[in-house]
Description:
Layout: H1 3-11, E1 17-20, H2 26-37, E2 42-45, H3 55-64, H4 70-76, H5 80-89, E3 95-96, H6 104-114, E4 128-132, E5 135-139
Amino acid sequence: MSVIDEAKAKIKGRRLKLVMPEGDDERIRAAAARFAAEDLAEPVVFGLDVPESGPADIALVLARREKMTESMAARLLRKPLYRAGAMVAAGEASAMLAGAANPTARVIEAALMTIGPAQGIATPSSFFLMQWPDRRLVFA
């Protein structure tokens, strides 16, 4: 069984919400349709049409950035990556999938400002996996 097949088996049928804030990209819309069709996740897809944030979302951002004002936090949450991160932090989604239309640094920055690192983690990291029938490549 491949790494990707193992990951799919772990999430299949769990109805986890996956927020995908790059919905203006056709690849993301196609991936969202596939997640739903294969019962791997309930995609929440948006792009520049960012869902409205409320006081609880603003409070989450303010808790992470002590020098930020409420109006700055509200403005930040109008940006797709930050709104998606706030949705994960608030429990509105289980995970965020991004990086197809935004550079890794912007995705990590948004996640740090909204979700924050897990306890005991000081340095964020990322990777992506490319898999073919006869080989796998991990880029980190």
